[in-house]
Amino acid sequence: MPIKLVTTAAELRSESARLLGAKRGSSQGLIPTMGALHSGHAALARTAVAQNDVVVATIFVNPLQFGDAVDLDRYPRTLEADMALLDAEGVDLVFAPSVDEMYPGGQPLVRVTSGSLGEKWEGASRPGHFDGALTVVAKLLHLGLPGGVAFDGSTPAYRAYFGQKDAQQLALVKRMVADLNFPVEVVPVPTVRSEDGLALSSRNRFLSDVERDAALVLSRALRLLEARANAHEPLDVESAVELVRSQPLVELDYFDVVDPLTLEPLAENCRETPFRGEGLAIIAAKVGPVRLIDNAPLDS
Ligand code: PAF
């Protein structure tokens, strides 16, 4: 069946019910996106298609999560190319609502707050960003609930897919789903990288060739820590930081090793004693005009 585009919540619900019925399906996957899709999103779609009978992607550039109107305006809108990518991966349905459809009364009065977890790291340089992102994710998770019942009369399984590249967003969505009892399983999908290691991001298109080369230092620094963790050696965060600072086009914002769920820095002693357990190395830096984030799960 060719991919279908809907723009209203009512159509989304009726199409989801129709597709589940037509496919005698018992599971639905949801992939929330803002469009400008790349191979990282294709990996989300591939995972969702492999795990569900019906897959819905959403494309909505959410004004609530942009602090700056200029950033919102210049966010790339590439619906035709996005539909082609999702179609090639076997996604059934795309929900691409207007701002009025999502926020009919204007800015919502009641919102999700991300608490202290949303104020650190990315939240510190983008105040309000995670409140806006969680508010729209909450709405999309509700709107994307499988329509109708499965062919055997049970409630269809419901899964939502998020990239590990946005580690803080992923931690917050997991926390919201647990704290507020959303009936959905959150499925993390590993970061996709280009061959030279750069994590794929819609922002990479704003890097010049020289800046793109400079940006490779982020993944190189993460690899240094990964190698240390895999060898059960103390994490030499200082050397990794020095490596990043040696690249003049890169302005480091933060680089640390944190708990993957709480994003609290791990105890200093992981830098002095052999690394054991789980951690997440996180980095953010400005490369030319572009702010980039990346991370590496450390498991030893
Ligand atoms: O990661 C994104 O693309 C957005 O933050 C999301 C989850 C689609 C919410 O707008």
Describe this structure in words.
- The protein folds into 2 domains: 4-189, HUPs (Rossmann fold); 202-299, Pantoate-beta-alanine ligase, C-terminal domain (Pantoate--beta-alanine Ligase, Chain: A,domain 2).
- 37% of the residues lie in helices and 20% in strands.
- It is built from 10 helices and 9 strands.
- Helix 2 links the parallel strand 2 and strand 3.
- It is globular and about 55 Å long.
- 38% of the residues are buried.
- The mean pLDDT is 95.
- Pantoate (PAF) is lined by residues 32-34, 62, 65, 133, 136-137, 166, 169.
Number of helices: 10
- Mean pLDDT, nearest integer? 95
Which sequence of SSEs, written as H and E, runs from N to C? EHEHEHHEHHHEHEHHEEE
Q: What is the makeup of the main sheet?
A: 6 strands, parallel
Please specify the SSE layout and strand pairing:
Layout lengths: L3 E3 L2 H14 L4 E7 L5 H13 L2 E6 L9 H6 L4 H11 L3 E3 L3 H4 L19 H4 L3 H15 L13 E7 L3 H13 L5 E5 L19 H22 L6 H9 L4 E9 L19 E10 L2 E10 L1
Parallel strand pairs: 1-4, 2-3, 2-5, 3-4, 5-6
Antiparallel strand pairs: 7-8, 8-9
Helix pairs in contact: 7-8, 9-10
What is the gist of this entry?
The protein has 10 helices and 9 strands.
Which key features would you list for this structure?
three-stranded antiparallel beta sheet; 300 residues; Rossmann fold; 2 domains; 10 helices; binds pantoate; six-stranded parallel beta sheet; Pantoate--beta-alanine Ligase, Chain: A,domain 2; 37% helix; 9 strands; alpha/beta
